[in-house]
Structures are given as C-alpha cells and as structure tokens.
C-alpha cells in the first residue's frame, strides 16, 4: 500500500470503525494502529511498564491513569 491516497482512506475507515467498536481491547488496539503508536510508546510516555499497558489494553488489569490516557487517545483518533 504505497499509494498515499489508499493509506488516507484506510486511516479514515479505521477511524469510522473505531466509533462503532464496543470491545475495549479492540478499540485500544485500533487507536494504536490509527495513531501509529505501540504499547511501548504508551509505556514510555506514561513512564510505566509495558506489561502494565498490555494488561490494561487486554482487560487483565486496571489502572486509572493508563485507562484515562487511552481514552484521551480514542478521542484524539476519532
């Protein structure tokens, strides 16, 4: 997919789909794709461990700080 127009359309499709996703894990993973961020990027930005971010994204653990940051990213991506 070297065509910039195709990449732009794909990003818009992901953004539209993001608004319909009900599953938190899927929503967060889609946000990371749209914003081209990794879980490691999030961990570095929040100065937390990668397993902490992964646990929140996959629903295996809770962290108010990480969840609030991820929701902020959702709004930014939508």
Task: Give a structural overview.
The protein has one domain. 76% of the residues lie in helices and 0% in strands. It has helices at residues 4-20, 24-35, 39-46, 50-57, 64-77. The longest helix is centred in the first third of the chain and has 17 residues, at 4-20. The chain is globular, with a radius of gyration of 13 Å. The mean pLDDT is 84.
List the helices and strands and how they pair.
Elements: H1 4-20, H2 24-35, H3 39-46, H4 50-57, H5 64-77
Helix pairs in contact: 1-2, 2-5, 3-4
Low-confidence stretches: none
Number of strands: 0
Task: Indicate the overall shape.
Answer: globular
Helix-strand string: HHHHH
Instruction: Let me know the average pLDDT.
Output: 84
How many structurally independent domains? 1
Gyration radius over CA: 13 Å
Decide which structural class fits the backbone. Answer: mainly alpha
Count of DSSP helices?
5
As a percent range, the share of helical residues equals over 70%
Largest sheet: none
| DSSP strand content | under 5%
Question: Whole-Å distance between the termini?
Answer: 22 Å
